[in-house]
Amino acid sequence: MGAATKLAFGVFLISCSSGAILGRSQTQCVQYSYHPARSNTSGVEACVGEKDKRLHCYATWRNVSGNVELFKQGCWLDDVNCYDSAECVERREVSDIFFCCCEGNMCNEKFFYNPDRMQPTSSPVTPKLSVFMILLYSLVPIMGIATIVLFSFWIYRHHKLAYPPVLVPTQDPGLMPPSPLLGQKPLQLLEIKARGRFSCVWKARLLSDYVAVKIFPIQDKQSWQNEFEIYNLPGMKHENLLLFMGAEKRGSSLDIELWLITAYHEKGSLTEYLKANVLSWNELCHIAQTMARGLAYLHADAPGLRDGHKPSVAHRDIKSKNVLLKADLSACIADFGLSLKFEAGKSVGDTHGQVGTRRYMAPEVLEGAINFQRDAFLRIDMYAVGLVLWELAARCTAADGPVDEYMLPFEEEVGQHPSLEDMQEVVVHKKLRPKLRECWQKHPGLIMLCETIEECWDHEAEARLSAGCVEERVVQMQRNSNSTGPNDIVTVVTMVTNVDYPPKESSL
Ligand SMILES: *[C@@H]1O[C@H](CO)[C@@H](O)[C@H](O)[C@H]1NC(C)=O
Ligand SMILES: *[C@@H]1O[C@H](CO)[C@@H](O)[C@H](O)[C@H]1NC(C)=O
């Protein structure tokens, strides 16, 4: 057995045994939650976490000139910053929100502030790093192992100094100014949920709520910047647009990551949902209507909102992966990395016409023949909406026929990874579109949906429906199909058992 194998095996044994010991013990924490409007809650929380992970307790509070205002107490998931600390002590120099975590039953009952002024600042970080670079590049493999051990120790030490609640190694987020909204609220990254073209999306915990954190590498600053600017436009809060919570730069100058923090939706994207589920007619209508409503709002130019003039915005990457589903199956539109805003009197600025996801590109985009007017961009979004509506129809149980496995639009025609040429051939030259099944033509609602789909993906951009019009159509088709027909009574019943539905909202 080589030294490395032995070492790895040893580490494995140690981690297994410590996991097993910790797994058996139950952790309980003092729970408290301050609510400005309702009454405060307090009690004891039994912590639940993954097997083989440690559990901790935490507390956050303010200290206004000696007057302690408790904010929250509760369970905290596995975090190296809390290991083996029996007392809950905030050691950083902070001025606003204090945070501490500890290990042991009810250890957060008492909490203290004790800034440790003896700790070194971050200045020694850079020289240390370059020493490690030399070690890494010049020494023989045996020394390499020693380097790894030293390096992990460095990470461990470094981590202890870092902004406590963040679980991203090899970073020093303490150096970055936090965004005003998040302040110093502790954020814990939990697991990767999706990987996109530029970024990956994490599920994270911000105090007791889940949030999504989209992390961009520094090379994709442009995409982060653009999305951040779009979210910050006036009027971007809408129930069918993903809720933005903050943006941050994290890490030291050597290793910066760009973060966008948004609401988290457990059901994930429409693509994932359709892979695993079929839709009743009413579910389809609800998703289609809320998606169209979100896009109509995004497209609209709305002066005189409470926070200013919302300009018209083209999304430019509409696809089922960028439509998220809330718990009640309402859609919300996400990912504004490629979006363009249109402000009166201002030019659109530098833009490249041929962007987006090839599979969802309108014929004029595939041909590189778009004019750079606002309406041209909005119509490109509507073409993609047609394809998403087709994806919904293909997974709907309303028609009198079998429902196929989930497929991406054009997957039958061009497969999983089409080239630009493949898409041009199919969409522009052959003018093909995904197949509308014959059995869909027998359901009164699906007939209307098929017409709507065809009017969205029309080859002539000027002939396409607007998002507001699609929303109206969906309202109508749901009304028509629900008024009669024995089929629909069945689908209504399935719907009630499947989903906790909100009362139907009136159309805009
Ligand atoms: C909740 O607790 C705060 C102090 O943390 C207190 O000022 C406030 O009155 C409490 N609210 C209620 C409704 O009990
Ligand atoms: C609050 O502040 C006072 C002095 O400003 C300090 O003595 C005390 O330890 C602080 N307590 C907590 C829990 O932060």
TrEMBL record:
Residues 187-475 form the Protein kinase domain. It is found in: Cell membrane; Membrane. Its cofactor is Mg(2+); Mn(2+). It comes from the Eukaryota. Keywords: ATP-binding, Cell membrane, Disulfide bond, Glycoprotein, Kinase, Magnesium, Manganese, Membrane, Metal-binding, Nucleotide-binding, Receptor, Serine/threonine-protein kinase, Signal, Transferase, Transmembrane, Transmembrane helix. Residues 1-19 form the signal peptide. It catalyses: L-threonyl-[receptor-protein] + ATP = O-phospho-L-threonyl-[receptor-protein] + ADP + H(+); L-seryl-[receptor-protein] + ATP = O-phospho-L-seryl-[receptor-protein] + ADP + H(+). Its EC number is 2.7.11.30. It is an enzyme of class 2 (transferase). This is Serine/threonine-protein kinase receptor. The gene is acvr2aa.
